[in-house]
Design brief:
- Chain B: This is Phosphocarrier protein.
- The structure holds two protein chains of two kinds.
- Chain A is α/β, with parallel strands linked by helices.
- Helices cover 47% and strands 15% of the residues of chain A.
- Chain A folds into three domains: 28-143, Enzyme I, Chain A, domain 2; 157-255, 3-Layer(bba) Sandwich (Glucose Oxidase, domain 1), CATH 3.50.30.10; 257-570, TIM Barrel, CATH 3.20.20.
- Chain A has helices spanning 37-66, 68-80, 84-97, 101-117, 122-143, 166-170, 190-198, 234-256, 281-287, 311-325, 361-366, 368-381, 397-416, 434-438, 440-443, 454-462, 480-495, 512-519, 531-540, 543-553, 559-570, and strands spanning 3-6, 8-11, 14-22, 157-161, 177-182, 202-204, 218-222, 227-230, 262-263, 269-276, 293-297, 329-333, 386-391, 426-431, 449-452, 499-502, 523-526.
- In chain A, helix 18 links the parallel strand 16 (499-502) and strand 17.
- In chain A, helix 3 (84-97) crosses helix 4 (101-117).
- The longest helix of chain A has 30 residues, at 37-66.
- Chain A is globular.
- By secondary structure, chain B is of the alpha+beta class.
- Chain B has a single domain, classed as HPr-like (Histidine-containing Protein, Chain: A, 2-Layer Sandwich), CATH 3.30.1340.10.
- In chain B, 34% of the residues lie in helices and 27% in strands.
- Chain B has helices spanning 16-27, 47-51, 70-81; strands at 2-7, 32-37, 40-43, 60-66.
- Chain B has a four-stranded antiparallel β-sheet, with helices on one face.
- In chain B, helix 1 (16-27) packs antiparallel against helix 3.
- The chains are: A alpha/beta, B alpha+beta.
- Chains A and B meet through helix 2, helix 3, helix 4, helix 5 and helix 10 of A and helix 1 and helix 2 of B.
């Protein structure tokens, strides 16, 4: 019999093996009166000491197997064992209420678990597992029963459990465990994170449906799709194994590309960068092989708070990204607020047409106090890496010149104050308003680079609101009109020896990339997850050949025809 | 007793790692350290209690410190609250 179940893929990969069920019992101790509370406290302390010893051993072996940062989870567990609100509170409960250690521990740990599970943040909800893990271990010692041990498994299997604690996951014997499936949990739970580190497939949150399976069930799991086949037929299993092999080969190929530069088949080098909007995106960019940050949106610093961020706060954030990128280029865009992105504390007037109103640089030039603070923070951060500053929403050259003037003034002030600034900071502009695209040759002498923001450029060129579904058909990234604008920008930049990047969604699109490479784009900035595939694609393309195709595409009448043209030439 | 308010800059809020660093530093001081956020007040020497505050980026956190070395503790812990932790 074949049955199919769905869950959330928490760690990618495919695996097929017999199921191994872990049944966790939920022990709830009875409340008993303690005759000798001093003795109860002694018993509790010795259980804590034993747990401490075991966790320390797990910490050491995890550090050896997986490195110091993964072992940190267990440092956290050891800290719980020293937490006054946990340990001292349990002991006080024993003596104040005159009750048994098991019940006091149960009460204290449950109250923390419930508090954390009720939190909005998924990450914090997940931390309840840490307390369960630690409290469960102490409880086992109090009761004198053995704690679950997954280190000594000998048969090939896929583990099925209600949930796996961090210490369970860290001890999995990877020689035989092919993957695991849990009833609860999310992508951010420790066991999911651990599975990704161990690179074994994991599916979480499947519910209790698997509990009723026979003990000898055979499982084929595809953690990419989050699907589980129970007792596959011979044909299904053969197809699955083939799929698994393809996936493993594809994965290995992509991983090889991670630390490689990006070259077309005929040797033209381009830069593949990541767009980021939060500090934690930086690590993801590096993990996905980004050669730089092509767009760092700074709005997050201003949103979700009650007042403007200070210079010091901004400086700390910019410095963090620059240092983390370790000399790789980082393009930071100055504030793009206004329009549809509001800041309550700034009390901006309502506009009837916000996308055509006072947004981004227009607002910054009006509210120079805000702008100058950001420029100072950027300039100060520049000495910590390879910073490039980019101004958004420029329609006419006066705006660019004014922004550059303010930047120069702030730079001069810092020099007077004796504060270090990088010797050379590239200054560029986004091209997202058609007026800037068609007169790019007039802007080019005044900038070090252009970055084409296609999301807005398309919206303004087509006069179609992207969010309005009735006109969303006009969102046509490689429509000849857009390709022509892009072409004009690139040609104008090349004339002046400047480079051109693109930081809209189009830069990571596999239909657009061949055309953009053909038009001579230098830098492609996209969401991190798209980078490796883009690198593989560029490696398969002849730049010279696509230069000719792109020229032809400029003269094709419609979007559909361009799409078909690219597909045909790709074959 | 002294008290001061800080704004959290760390992108992921003040959760596991930052809280750990904070509690380790706080535990080294003899004074009583309370952390206030969103109307709740907890012991700054307990990482579990710190977690239950669910302190997010850009939120305000007030430290109330009472006892020996309170000024030093305020300096060290205030710096930790406004730092970006890896």
């Amino acid at each position: 019999m074949t049955a199919l179940r769905k869950g959330t893929g928490a760690s990618p990969g495919l695996a097929a093996a017999p199921a191994y069920f872990i049944h966790q019992d939920h022990y709830t101790p009875k409340k008993l009166e303690a005759v000798n509370t001093t003795g109860e406290i002694q018993r509790f302390r010795s259980a804590v000491a034993q747990a401490q010893e075991e966790i320390e051993a797990i910490r050491v072996s995890t550090e050896q197997k997986l490195g110091a940062d993964k072992a940190e989870i267990f440092e956290g567990h050891l800290m719980i064992l020293e937490d006054p609100d946990f340990i001292d509170a349990t002991e006080e409960k024993i003596s104040d209420e005159g009750i048994n250690a098991e019940y006091a521990l149960h009460e204290v740990s449950t109250s923390f678990i419930e508090l954390l599970q009720a939190m909005e943040d998924e990450l914090l909800q997940g931390r309840a597992v840490d307390i369960k893990d630690v409290a469960g271990r102490i409880m086992s010692h109090l009761r004198g029963v053995p704690h679950l041990d997954l280190a000594n498994m000998t048969e090939e299997c896929i583990i099925i459990a209600e949930d796996l604690t961090p210490s369970d996951t860290a001890q999995l014997n990877l020689d035989v465990v092919r993957g695991f499936i849990t009833e609860i949990g999310s992508r951010t739970s420790h066991s999911a994170i651990m599975a990704r580190t161990l690179e074994i497939p994991a599916i979480v949150g499947v519910g209790s449906a698997l509990r009723s399976l026979p003990a000898d069930a055979f499982i084929a799991m595809d953690a990419e799709a989050g699907s589980i086949i129970i007792n596959p037929s011979a044909d299904e299993l053969a197809a699955f194994q083939q799929q698994k092999q393809q996936y493993d080969t594809f994965k290995a190929e992509l991983t090889k590309l991670k630390d490689q530069p990006t070259f077309s088949k005929d040797g033209k080098q381009v830069e593949l960068a990541a767009n980021i909007g939060k500090l934690e995106d930086v690590q993801r960019a590096l993990d996905n092989g980004a050669e730089g940050i092509g767009l760092f949106r700074t709005e997050f610093l201003y949103m979700g708070r009650s007042s403007l961020p200070t210079e010091e706060e901004q400086y700390t954030s910019y410095k963090y990204v620059l240092e983390k990128m370790n000399g790789k280029p980082v393009v930071i865009r100055t504030l793009d607020i206004g329009g549809d992105k509001e800041l309550p504390y700034m009390d901006l007037p309502k506009e009837s047409n916000p996308f055509l109103g006072q947004r981004a640089l227009r607002l910054c030039l009006d509210r120079q106090d805000i702008f100058r603070t950001q420029l100072r923070a950027l300039l100060r951060a520049s000495s910590h890496g390879n910073l490039k500053i980019m101004f958004p929403m420029i329609a006419v050259i006066e705006e660019l010149l004014e922004a550059k003037k303010l930047l120069a003034e702030e730079q001069a002030k810092l020099a007077d104050e004796g504060i270090a600034v990088a010797d050379r900071i590239e200054v560029g502009m986004m091209v997202e308003i058609p007026s800037a695209a068609v007169s790019a040759d007039l802007f080019a002498p005044e900038v070090d680079f252009f970055s084409i923001g296609t999301n807005d450029l398309i919206q303004y060129t087509m006069a179609a609101d992207r969010m309005n579904e009735t006109v969303s058909y006009l969102y046509q990234p490689w429509h000849p009109s857009i390709l022509r604008l892009i072409n004009m920008v690139i040609k104008a930049a090349k004339q002046e020896g400047k480079w051109v990047g693109m930081c809209g969604e189009m830069a990571g699109d596999t239909t657009a990339i061949p055309l953009l490479l053909g038009l001579g784009l230098d830098e492609f900035s996209m969401s991190a997850g798209a980078i490796l595939q883009a690198r593989q694609l560029v490696g398969e393309l002849e730049q010279a050949e696509w230069a000719a195709y792109a020229e032809q595409a400029l003269r094709i009448r419609s979007y559909e025809q361009v799409t078909a043209f690219v597909q045909q030439k790709r074959k | 007793m002294i008290s001061q308010t800080f704004t959290i800059l760390n992108p992921t809020g003040f959760h596991v790692r930052p809280a750990k660093t904070f509690v380790q530093a706080a535990s080294a001081f003899p004074c009583k350290i309370s952390v206030l956020n969103k109307g709740k007040k907890v012991n700054g020497k307990s990482s579990l209690s710190m977690l239950t505050l669910g302190i997010a980026m850009n939120e305000e956190v007030t430290l109330e410190i009472d006892g020996e070395q309170e000024a030093e503790a305020m300096k060290v812990l205030g710096d930790l609250l406004t730092q970006i932790h890896e």
